[in-house]
Amino acid sequence: MKLLKIFLFLFFSFLFYPLFLKAQEPPLITVSPEGYAKPVVKIIPFSGEKGAEVANLVKRALNLHLIILALEERAPSTKDPTLKGLVSSSGGRYFFQGELTDPISGKSFNLRAEATNHVLLASAIADKVVELLTKYQGISLSKIAFVRRTERADELIITDFLKQDFRRLRRAELILFPKFSPSGKKIAYIVYEKGTYRLEVAHVQGLERKEYKIKGIAGPPVWLPDEERMILTLEERGEVGLFLFDLKRDEFAKLHTGLGVRQAGSVSPDGRLVAFVASLRDKPQVYMLNLSSGEARRVSFEGGQATSPRFSPKGNLLIYLLSQKTLVFYDLSNNKKTQLTLPFSITDPSFSPTGDYLIFRAKGKKRGIYILHLDSRAYQAYLPYDNLYYPDWGRH
Question: What confidence tens digit (pLDDT) does each residue in 81-138 have?
């Protein structure tokens, strides 16, 4: 039965996932294109309570950024930046006081951080080091959501970026398309239980969950910036189109419907544009809809199947998939496109809150959830298990 339920989504997600796959652990793979040199930072184990543990977490967080090589060192380096410091705790809070020195530039930075636990403390330290040593913002203080599929049920899991706290938010017969709200405080997803589909919106902390009835089946929920509305892909009278849903009023309004199949993909950060996939006559293609004028224009002309459009949080870029192996980067400022072809098929790309990374599910010989740094094109397995689906990236 579960296979049949998921297959119903094929016609409007253009994707089909195998159901019951055992978890596997392929080797971690990092590819750094020639000519991109990672800055090296040496970390001396911190002194104080949980000092060594915090230092190790900082090292892990920095290496997960793919653009810094963090190594443990016992003494200050004369060649590379060195991080040292002291960890203390008081009144249920953790504190860090340390120094980042760069012998090449001769610069030295005093660092201070405070957090409610040692994992958040390490994340804050790592993000500051990334900011000081590169031109990028850190992503340690972010979170990842995904669906873990088992033979008995689906589980909606949320984890911190360092993978220290895996929390099950929801368990159901079938869970599809989890999407964080722009603030990261809420998450929306589609649930199938007891023969019906419905939209659910939950607070990430698990304090509240609301359910909304849906006629027929539905596609991924796509948030608008105000977090009071979203765009849903719904079936009505044999047509599959885009509908605007007001969460406060619990009301649907037609947005873009007609012959063929349409699926919402992403809303621009300013809330003006909707990127969607439409299969009107032949293969699915990517379009952009202006919410003010109601005009839609086609974006993808490369040939083949174009799916999964996503706006960057920076607002300057739209990416989409071409035949599931090639990422197309569409610069909205000058209408120029570049492409990146990966050695495996991918689905469900999601931008980091900073807009500098993508997370996605890899298929083929390399399975699991991967992270890609857009500028360097470096990528690495983040969660190398083949029964994980629909990854999404949210703010802390």
Answer: 999 999 999 999 999 999 999 888 888 999 999 999 999 999 999 999 999 999 999 9
Query: Which domains can be identified in the chain, with CATH numbers?
Result: 2-30+143-395 (2.120.10.30), 40-133 (3.30.160.100)
pLDDT of amino acid 36: 60
* Rounded (5°) CA angle 206-267-12: 85
Give the residue with greater pLDDT, 360 vs 366.
Answer: 360
Q: Is the pTM of this model over 0.85?
A: yes
Number of neighbours of residue 346 by Cβ within 10 angstroms? 22
Query: What single DSSP character describes residue 250?
Result: T
Q: Which run of H or of E encompasses 381?
A: strand 379-383
Give me the residues paired with residue 112 across strands. 97
Kindly list the distances between the CA atom of residue 337 and the CA atoms of 39, 220, 277, 313, 349, in Å, as whole numbers in the listed order: 29, 26, 18, 18, 18
Looking at residue 373, its pLDDT comes to: 97
**How many residues appear in the chain?**
396
Q: How far apart are alpha carbons 229 and 222 in whole angstroms?
A: 9
Tell me the three state secondary structure of residue 121: helix
Q: Are 214 and 221 in contact (CB under 8 A)?
A: no
Amino acid at 319: I
CA of 109: how far to CAs of 69, 85, 363, in Å?
Answer: 19, 12, 43
CB-side neighbour CA atoms (13 Å) of 292: 4
